[in-house]
Amino acid sequence: MNKKNLIGIGIGILIITIALLGMDSIHEFSGERLLKIFKSPVTGILVLITGILLMVLSSSKAVEHSAILASALGISPLMIGLVLVSLGTDLPEIVNSIVSSGLGHADIDIGDSMGSVLTQLTLIFGLLPFLGRSFRVKRKEIIVMGGCLILAIMLVISIVEKGYVSRTNALFLIGSWPIYMLITKTIVGRDGLNHVGSIKAFKRNIYHFSIAGLGFVGVAVGSYAVVRSVIMLSEAIKVPEYFISFFLVGIGTSLPELVVDVTALRKKQYEIAIGDIIGSCIIDASFSIGIGLSLFPQAVSGELARPTILYILFASLAVISILVARERVDKKAGIIFIALYLFSYIFLINKLIH
Fold first, then answer.
1. Which CATH architecture has domain 3-353?
2. Which residues have CB under 8 Å from 334's CB, separation 6+?
3. 216 or 315: whose pLDDT is higher?
4. Residue 58 burial (CB count, 10 A)
């Protein structure tokens, strides 16, 4: 990561922080006209785009430098993707969960996390053979990881549809994630030394820790901007926060997966890509949703979440079945996955409207 990227992240953090402070204090010293500008849909969209861009850049760099450190430990590529890289690329959703729940807007947490599951498993997965290359997958790994994902989704819907997520429920979601990882590690159980980065780079651990830390700060600031923009847009255009988070923010916070996985494919690190895609979905459906609500338990819009999560369950079963049957991700599979994503707009919007 060069100095220009460092300066870019730093400037982005500074600009968004100043903008958000201005939005928080605008009521105290501005006139009605200026208040309308800060409350307009255009301002909300600009803040949303800026926040997402900052999250994408920051999380990408945080993952890149964290992976360099992890690769020196000789961790297998699949487990690097499933645990480390997926945690890194899911930073936007994780921080969004804490921020949105802390502000009393848990619908943004659930909408973003579950929207990311759908986006990553269908749209992002479908784009990989077009933007990167076709690649093979191993049936056993897909069955194990896919089974954990299905369990995670079923657990989420059983909790969320009640309309209130308690601290106990949230802690159960968080605790389920390491269990899924343990199951995968135990059954798949492979170690490897297929390194992600240069071992020499590990000697510069202070530098990499510093850059990764700055990346995490950028993700946090960008996430706060996204949450604030969703609240602004929801108030301005009278659309539920869950709706905006599921369809719009879910795409934005899934961009790190797209960037990281396309890069992994071009470097022929196929297991890192598949581990990150499915691993990120598992985190979103467990740890990501639970972390914010474990700190701030509250009511959620179960009636909105139920049809969307049921569709995610259907799409997940379809994607996993195709992968198990074909053991290959190519353009034919990609078209089917993308079609599943696009059909969700027709199906879910109709459900949410009626």
1. Up-down Bundle (1.20)
2. 125, 126, 127, 128, 129, 130
3. 315
4. 29
187 conformational bin, left if phi > 0, alpha if psi -120 to 50, beta if neither: alpha
How many residues in the chain?
354
Closest alpha carbon to 79 in 218, 213, 187: 187
Closest to 134 (Cα-Cα) out of 335, 339, 342, 340:
335
Phi-psi region of 253 (alpha: psi -120 to 50; beta: other; left: phi over 0): alpha
Q: Say how far apart CA 71 and CA 77 lie, in whole Å.
A: 9
Q: Give yes or no for residue 27 having a pLDDT over 70.
A: no
CA distance 273 to 131: 13
Q: What is the dihedral of CA 172, 174, 180, 185, to 10 degrees?
A: -130
Whole-Å CA distances, 222 to 151, 253, 274: 31, 10, 26
Q: Which position has the token pair 């980065």?
A: 197
Q: Could you read off the pLDDT of 119-149 as tens digits, one per residue?
A: 999 999 999 999 888 999 999 999 999 999 9
Q: What is the rounded distance in angstroms from the CA atom of residue 132 to the CA atom of residue 261?
A: 8
> What residue spans define the domains of the chain?
3-353
Separation of alpha carbons 22 and 16, rounded Å: 10
Q: What is the pTM of this model?
A: 0.76
